[in-house]
Specification:
about 180 residues, four-stranded mixed β-sheet, flat, 4 strands, alpha+beta
């Protein structure tokens, strides 16, 4: 191979390496993620826990079933045996997928929801109709007294349906609602 071709290939490789290093190392000015981490299209954010070899937070395409998520994250799903009937259930943002194999042969899968604090950290929208008083108290400007009042209002008069309906709680005004809106 001629020297000029080797030099051109080396320069191209160096340029690509520096570009990827800078893109992955420094935050983008518009809040973009690091190189290769952009989600393409709609996605659901799910945490895998329990017996998964690589437990952690994952983004899957919308419409991913429990069975598909296991096949994508477990290198050899063969030892898991037959997946339970719930394997066809579709994952939703904020789900926690727990995998255990108590007898060493058959997988037991359970789906729970992430807590409010974890959802806030991962920027997964909260649901005002499913939050406990303790979770409401995690929000800025809402203390333990107001959080109990919010839950009591929901129990007495029914689900909120949307965040705007939280305005019916005494002590929640438009300004406070605007502060917490980014979490919903």
């Amino acid at each position: 191979m001629p020297t000029s071709s080797r030099l051109a290939i080396w320069c191209l490789a160096l340029l690509l390496s520096v570009t990827l290093y800078v893109k992955g190392r420094f935050p983008a000015p518009r809040g973009e993620e690091a190189a290769f981490l952009r989600a393409r299209g709609e996605s659901v954010t799910v945490r895998l826990a329990g017996g998964f070899p690589r437990a952690g937070v994952y983004r899957f395409p919308v419409g991913t079933s429990v069975r598909s998520a296991i096949k994508m994250t477990v290198a050899d799903p063969e030892p898991l045996g037959a997946l339970p009937a719930g394997g066809a259930a579709l994952l939703q943002t904020g789900d926690v997928l727990n995998l255990s194999i108590p007898d060493g042969k058959n997988a037991v899968i359970s789906i729970t929801k992430m807590g409010a604090q974890e959802r806030m950290l991962l920027q997964v929208p909260l649901d005002p109709d499913r939050m406990s008083a303790k979770e409401w108290a995690l929000l800025p400007g809402i203390g333990p007294v107001l959080s109990k009042r919010i839950v009591a209002e929901r129990h007495e008069n029914g689900a909120f349906g949307s965040l705007d309906e939280v305005l019916r709680v005494p002590g929640i005004g438009p300004a406070k609602l605007e502060v917490i809106k980014k979490y919903f």
